[in-house]
Write a structure and sequence with these properties.
Chain lengths: 151, 119
């Protein structure tokens, strides 16, 4: 009983301390920033296709994503991406730039713990699940297709 | 010009759904990324991704949904070419560019930049 009450009091205390995001402005900014990042990607993609008419659409996407990842890693290093993230929330997490930020941010933050145990180990603290779930899910999809193709 | 408007609207909408999830469930960014990635894997597996992508372009390819779709597309394509081997090689091979770029740039910039302590 006493434990229950203590838990309740603690949960209320935690609730008080959780930073409150104001719902409406954050929805607006996540829409604006997320849309803008996608727009930037489309712009880069179209410019690449103009500059190199010989490459396929698929290669153009590859280059586009790598450029976006480069920019996001650089902005993370400069400390700018986290500032954008404070305002944009989902708008900065959901695009591929958010994946890039999730790898760059802990690597830079834990640099002080050394190259191996800091940078290399912490690099995947957020992106690890993304790669694990992605690999497992894609293998699952591939396996289902393989089984279907047997019949 | 209208194409760009759709890219902006659809990309913005997907990100806003992410923000709605964050506000309503206090979900962490790793879970957000995984959720949208698996959505992409699913859309590609059932064949819905390509028709959406033809219309939404970067609006759905830049969000991590596109990353998930590439994983599934790679696995399916590799199974068609290599059979059972493709189950294991396809997904990561298709997304290797993105993963390698993120790892390489993160490593290089981590060596160059110092941490900006979060305030």
């Amino acid at each position: 009983m006493e434990n229950k009450q203590r838990n309740l009091a603690y949960n209320n205390y935690v609730k008080e301390k959780i930073p409150k995001t104001k719902a409406w402005p954050s929805l607006f900014y996540s829409f604006l920033v997320g849309g803008a990042i996608c727009l930037l990607g489309q712009g880069i993609n179209d410019l690449l296709l103009l500059a190199m008419p010989n490459i396929s659409q698929q290669s153009a996407w590859g280059y586009t994503l790598i450029i976006l990842i480069f920019v996001a890693s650089l902005l993370t290093g400069l400390g700018v991406y986290d500032q954008i993230g404070k305002v944009a929330g989902g708008g900065s997490i959901v695009p591929i730039t958010g994946f890039s930020n999730s790898i760059a941010s802990p690597s830079i933050e834990f640099k002080s713990e050394g190259i191996v145990y800091g940078i290399c180990v912490k690099m995947f603290s957020i992106a690890g699940p993304v790669i694990v779930f992605g690999t497992v899910a894609s293998a699952g999809v591939g396996l289902i297709y393989w089984i279907i193709s047997l019949f | 010009m209208l194409d760009y408007l759709w890219v902006f609207l659809i990309g913005g909408l997907i990100c806003m759904i992410g923000e709605v999830l964050i506000i309503t469930t206090n979900i962490t960014s790793a879970r957000i990324l995984v959720t949208f990635e698996l959505l992409g894997v699913f859309l590609q597996a059932v064949g819905l991704f390509d028709p959406i992508s033809a219309f939404a372009k970067a609006g759905i390819n830049v969000p991590i949904v596109g990353f998930g779709a590439s994983l599934a597309k790679g696995a399916i394509g590799a199974v068609k070419t290599y059979g059972l081997l493709g189950v294991f090689t396809g997904g990561l091979a298709a997304t290797a560019g993105g993963i390698a770029a993120a790892v390489v740039f993160a490593f290089v910039f981590a060596l160059i930049f110092k941490s900006h302590t979060k305030k």
